[in-house]
C-alpha cells in the first residue's frame, strides 16, 4: 500500500499519529503536506517519551510547523516503550486507519523492510470500528497535553463511532496492549482452542531467550519456528534457545524491521503483523509493569496470496542459529534513559493575549523558583490560579518559526533543566484547522529505498541531507513563515519576488557572516532517506498509486529507524569511515546511482513533470544530478566525462532560452499569482550555490575554460535562483552542500570570474572603434583557430574555428559549433589579438581564465579587481584555450 496516498484521501479532518520514533523534518516535508492536501487540518502526534525528547533537541532551528500545524506530545504513563505505529484519520461520516511496522520516519516509510496496511472503518463497512473507542480511551491516558486530550475527546464524540463494548464479527481485529493487558493474553483469548504446528516470523529485534516463541509453543502447541532477522539486531543467546526447534533466515541485504507472524497447522493459518517485535516486552509484559505499548492487526483466516512477499522471504533456506547468529549478540534494549526530575509537559501561547502558559510534572511546590526560557530569552513566571500551571508574557525578539521552551527549576535538591519542548501556538493551530487547502498541484510520491554500506551510499546520503534539510513548505508550496506570536504581514519590498539581491553582493557579504558549525548545519535525520526514496519523492506521475514502486536500491541500518549502535556509536553493520570498502559493493552501488541520475534527467524532460512539478521539486530534481556528479567525480566512482555530461544536461534543461524549466515553472507560478512562493522555494540559494560550485569545479573537455567562465557568470546572475537569499542563509547552505572547496569557490573564484568578465568587456567596449576587427582593423591579422571573438549585444563571446564562404565563419559557443555572419554592420573584436597590444585587457583575460581553471587566482577578502590584477604575475604565453 502507498502511505502517501492514504494520507491524501479526502473526507477526514483530524489525524491521530501514534509512533515510537519520530522524524519532524521528514514529517513536515512529506507526511504533513499530504495530510493537509487530503483536507486534514487537525493533527496530533504522540511518540515515545525519550524519542520525542531526542527529536525535538535534534531538529532545533530546522522546523517551521511544529506547534503551528500539528502538536507533538510524549506518551505518559508507559512503563516500557511506547511502540505502536498507526495513523488514524477521522471525518464526519467515518474513519481510515493505517497500521504499519515502521515509524514515522523516512526509514519507516520505505528505507527498511516494512509492512503496512490501510482500510476504512465506520457505519455499514466491514469494519465498524468497534476497536476504536477503547483505543481512544487509552490515548486519553497517554496524552501529555490538554490540546491532545481536547482533540481526542472531540473525536470520541463523533456520533458514528460504536459505543464501548460493541462486538465485532470481523475476521480481522486490531489489538493493542494497555495497562495490565498484554497482546499475548488477548491473542490467547481470541484464538482459544486453536493449535498450530509452525510459526514463521519476521522481527526487527528480539530478547535473549525467545520468550514469545516459548509462549507460542506453550499456548498453541507450535513445534517448529523459522525466524527472519538481521543478525546484528538479534539479542538471542545460543545457550538460552537450545531447546527451541528454531532456524534462522538471516537478512543481510537490508535492515529487516517488519514484524510479521504466520501461524499454520491442520486448522489453517492465522497471521499477525504490526509493531510488536519477538520479545517478552512486546508480548508478555503489561505496560503497567515496564512492558511496551504495541499495536497489531490480527487475521483469523488469512490468504497466503495477501502476504506473498513476506512468506517468500520466510521460505528461503534457513540456517541453524549457530550458523546465522553472532556468538556475542546485541545487548537487549531494556534500559530506558534516566528521566529528569521535572518535565515540561506543555507550553502554550495564546496569541491574542501574548501570554504563555506551561505546566510541569511533577508540579513544583510553593516557594520553588521557576524560570522559563523561550529561545534562550528568560521569562519571569507566576503561578496560574489553582497553582497547577505557570504563566509568563511572551517576549519580544523571538524570531524562530518553532520556538523552543526550557524550564529551569531551582529547589532544595538543586537546579533542574527540563528537556526542550515546542511552544504550541493556539491561534496558528486553529488557523491550520480552518485554512486547509487541497493541493492543486499533484504531490510527488515517495517510497523510500535502502542504504547499503559503501562510500557511494554515504555520498548519496550526504547529497540527500543537503537537498532536504533546507526549506519546508506548507501544502500550497509556500515557505514564508512568521515568528511565533507575530501578526501576519505581506512580504516587504526587500523580500518580494522580482526584487532579488545581487549575486555578487551576496557572495561578498558571505565573508562577514560566521560559519555555522558543520554539525549544526546538518542536523536532522535525513541520512535515512534512500536513493529510491528520492527518486520516488521527485518523480511519481500524478496518476501513479505507488503500487508498482521500484524495489529498494540502497538500505538502512536502523533500530526503530536510528540503527543498532555498537560501543563506538556506529551502526552495527557500518564500517569505520576510512576503513576498506568492498570494491564490488561500490561498483554495484555506483551503477545504481548512475541509473538513478539518468532516470532523473529523463524524467525532468518529461511533459508531465514540466507541467506539474512544484518549485521545490524542480530545485531538488535539478540539484540531485549536480551533487552526485560532484561527489562521484571527487571520489572516483563517476568518470569526469560522465559527470560533465550530467552537469551540461541539467544546465540545458534549466536554462534553454525557449523551453527551460526555470522559465516555464516561474511563469506558471506567476500566472497563478504565486511568484512569491516560487522565489521562496527556488530562490533560497541552494540550487544556485550548487550550480555555480559544480560548474566552477568541472574540467570540461568539450568546452573551453573561457566558455566555462561565461557559463559561471550566466548562472551566477540568474536572479530567479536568489529571490529570497541572504548572505547568512546562503553561507549555511554552502556548508550543508559539503561540495569540495565550495566555500572558496563561492566567495573567491566566482567573484573573480564575474567581476573579471565585466571588467574585460568594459575595457573592450571603451576602445571599440580602435580595436582590431576582421575587416579594416589596425593589425588586420588573420584569425586563428581558438581565438576569442567578442561582439556587443546578442552574440557575445565565441571561439573562432575556421573561415566559411560568403563572409561567414564557424565558431563555437559553449562547445557547440555554428556558423556566424560578418559584415560592416556586424563586427567582432578578436580579443586574443587585442590582448597582445593592451596590457589591461591581457591582465583581465588572464585573471578570468586562471580563476576558471582554479589555478589559485581568486579574490581575497576585501580585495578590489585592480589589487587582484597586480597579483597576476605569470607571463602570458598565449591566450588560446589549452595553452
TrEMBL record:
<feature type="region of interest" description="Disordered">
    <location>
        <begin position="541"/>
        <end position="587"/>
    </location>
</feature>
<feature type="region of interest" description="Disordered">
    <location>
        <begin position="318"/>
        <end position="337"/>
    </location>
</feature>
<protein>
    <recommendedName>
        <fullName>Phospholipase D-like domain-containing protein</fullName>
    </recommendedName>
</protein>
<feature type="compositionally biased region" description="Basic and acidic residues">
    <location>
        <begin position="560"/>
        <end position="578"/>
    </location>
</feature>
